[in-house]
């Protein structure tokens, strides 16, 4: 169910504040100081800045646009710290550290030393010869080396109703500022499973009617990272996909406040809905776009009829109705295409081809590329095989247990308007790299004939009898060989140099203070559930259905909030088989992949 919330959003750029300060004509020795702090309900408390060697305290008033941001002028070129002062001059609180001279106009965050990193860690290109997608610039929505702040404001009663009834569709009006233009935005609670935990996830998108966006991007997810105490797994996976030139979301970090209350650190991720695909594949041009399908429902033997298969792309018939149970399908039409490219018919035709991949007459008789067979041409005409195989390789190597191979969902298929070729895009990467509700495979159970078994630690590829596209693609010798080449390339360019682990260290330093802050202010649903019996029962039923019925479901729930940040990254983690330290997972992957590529 969707929690729709209309909102107004403000993006406050550093340049905007520089211009505002300049309008007051301050002396050239003065600079602009900007700090985020919600303060208390006491109107007598205000923010100030103190400069090293200067006994004067300089007041920093709240911004007229958002009250948690304070903006003022003071001398520059020396170290400084922020203070909270009473109107009578008493210092209520002060930062315990001094900041470097205010040489650049970033938004500081009170009490946080790490607000901006001068370094910009990037993972080297994994597939240097891969296809380049003409993506619209993402630097505004996803800055690499800073953590922006989002502030949502709404009537208290509306927010209370939204959160108390978190399993029901409720819409409220809010104002939102992203401390970075004014616009209308829809704000909503996130995915179904995430609503069962102590910290909500959210979605929002800008209204297309007022031409506002974050650098042209209008739809985003705010992921709570509740189930990953490292806060890094999903971010790292998206960074790897980006460095692999694969079509996918980008991700960055934000801090979230609601009515001045801190909600914590969130992962900020592009939503695949419009105009994302146009921005990703066509530089923001939306004049002609294809159809976007979502594999949205997981495999579930308890689900009725065809829904039990999930979105596994298994053939059920040649009619669109064959893929629906009553009015519900495991496949969602996320975006219709322009002109005549509409509806489910192209997807059903693809599923029919997957079931019985036969070249048509033109593919049999046409001039083939060197070494290409008619069957290979038929596949390449319908789907970008290289992109598909790369995504499957990462699902295996990163242990994406909640993806297509693991649960037959969490992927998108985009049908390009020109070539009519399908493009595979993976999504929802939180249960990866050793975070799982199913146990890691016992190495002793791996058959000697299963050469890929040691890199496939959740036995994902052996589910291919229920994942027909993987089974059929790998049955083509050239594609099976290409899969091995992809694995070798990933090993060579991602695991034989220290860049991946250096990137983890960069992210660790960037968010470490904010993760500690998040753990101190974590909000729970306890109060809401205590007086809402209907929501409490729905929550209990969904936890049983979606979590506790899985082998490690109980452990998965019990460890949430009980494993610290550095242990989640470096280890050790004891007595929790549902979570492996991030670096341990990657080191074991590195070793297994090394052994595999040297054996084939």
From TrEMBL:
Q: Which domain of life is it from?
A: Eukaryota
| Keyword annotations from UniProtKB, A to Z | Capsid protein, Signal, Virion
Instruction: Please list which residues make up the signal peptide.
Output: 1-23
Task: Please report a single Pfam family linked to this protein.
Answer: CotH
The record's annotation in InterPro entries points to: Spore_coat_CotH_CotH2/3/7 (IPR014867)
Q: Where does this protein have coiled-coil stretches?
A: none
**Name of the protein described by the UniProt record:** Secreted coth spore-coat protein domain-containing protein
Lineage at the top is: Eukaryota, Fungi, Fungi incertae sedis, Mucoromycota, Mucoromycotina
């Amino acid at each position: 169910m969707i929690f729709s919330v209309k909102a107004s959003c403000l993006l406050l750029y550093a340049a905007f504040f520089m211009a505002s300060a300049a309008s007051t004509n301050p002396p050239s020795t003065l600079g602009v100081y900007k700090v985020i702090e919600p303060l208390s309900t006491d109107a007598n408390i205000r923010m100030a800045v103190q400069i090293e060697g200067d006994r004067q305290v300089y007041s920093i008033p709240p911004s007229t646009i958002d009250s948690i941001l304070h903006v003022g002028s003071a001398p520059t070129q020396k170290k400084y710290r922020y203070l909270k002062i009473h109107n009578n001059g008493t210092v209520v609180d002060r930062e315990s550290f001094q900041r470097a001279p205010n040489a650049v106009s970033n938004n500081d965050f009170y009490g946080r030393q790490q607000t901006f990193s001068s370094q910009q860690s990037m993972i080297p290109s994994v597939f240097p010869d891969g296809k380049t997608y003409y993506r619209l610039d993402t630097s505004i929505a996803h800055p690499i080396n800073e953590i922006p702040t989002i502030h949502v404001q709404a009537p208290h009663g509306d927010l209370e109703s939204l959160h108390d009834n978190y399993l029901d569709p409720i819409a409220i009006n809010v104002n939102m500022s992203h401390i970075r233009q004014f616009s209308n935005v829809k704000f909503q609670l996130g995915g179904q499973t995430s609503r069962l935990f102590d910290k909500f996830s959210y979605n929002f998108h800008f209204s297309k009617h007022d031409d506002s966006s974050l650098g042209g991007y209008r739809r985003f997810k705010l992921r709570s990272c509740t189930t990953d105490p490292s806060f890094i797994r999903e971010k790292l996976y998206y960074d790897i996909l980006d460095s692999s030139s694969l079509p996918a979301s980008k991700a960055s970090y934000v801090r979230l406040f609601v009515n001045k209350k801190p909600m914590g650190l969130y992962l900020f991720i592009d939503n695949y809905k419009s105009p994302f695909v146009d921005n990703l594949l066509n530089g923001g041009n939306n004049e002609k776009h294809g159809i976007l399908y979502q594999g949205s429902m997981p495999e579930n033997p308890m689900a009725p009829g065809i829904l039990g298969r999930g979105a596994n792309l298994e053939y059920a018939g040649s009619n669109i109705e064959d893929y629906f149970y009553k009015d519900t399908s495991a496949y969602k039409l996320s975006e219709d295409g322009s002109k005549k490219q509409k509806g489910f018919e192209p997807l059903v035709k693809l599923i029919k081809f997957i079931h019985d991949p036969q070249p048509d007459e033109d593919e049999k008789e046409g001039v083939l590329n060197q070494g290409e067979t008619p069957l290979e041409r038929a596949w390449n005409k319908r789907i970008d095989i290289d992109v598909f195989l790369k995504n499957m390789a990462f699902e295996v190597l990163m242990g994406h247990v909640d993806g297509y191979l693991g649960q037959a969902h969490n992927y998108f298929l985009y049908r390009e308007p020109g070539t009519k070729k399908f493009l595979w895009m993976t999504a929802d990467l939180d249960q990866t790299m050793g975070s799982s509700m199913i146990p890691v495979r016992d190495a002793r159970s791996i058959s000697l004939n299963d050469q890929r078994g040691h890199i496939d630690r959740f036995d994902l590829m052996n589910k291919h009898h229920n994942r027909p596209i993987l089974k059929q693609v790998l049955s083509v010798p050239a594609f099976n060989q290409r899969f091995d080449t992809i694995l070798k390339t990933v090993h060579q360019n991602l695991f034989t140099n220290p860049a991946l682990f250096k990137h983890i260290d960069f992210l660790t330093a960037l968010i470490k203070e904010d993760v500690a802050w998040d753990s101190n202010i974590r909000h729970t649903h306890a109060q809401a559930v205590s007086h809402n019996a209907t929501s409490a029962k729905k929550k209990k039923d969904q936890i049983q259905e979606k979590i506790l019925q899985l082998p490690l479901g109980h452990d998965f729930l019990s460890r949430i909030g009980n494993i610290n940040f550095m242990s989640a990254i470096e280890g050790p983690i004891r007595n929790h088989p549902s979570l492996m330290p991030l670096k341990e997972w990657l080191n074991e992957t590195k070793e297994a992949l090394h052994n595999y590529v040297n054996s084939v």
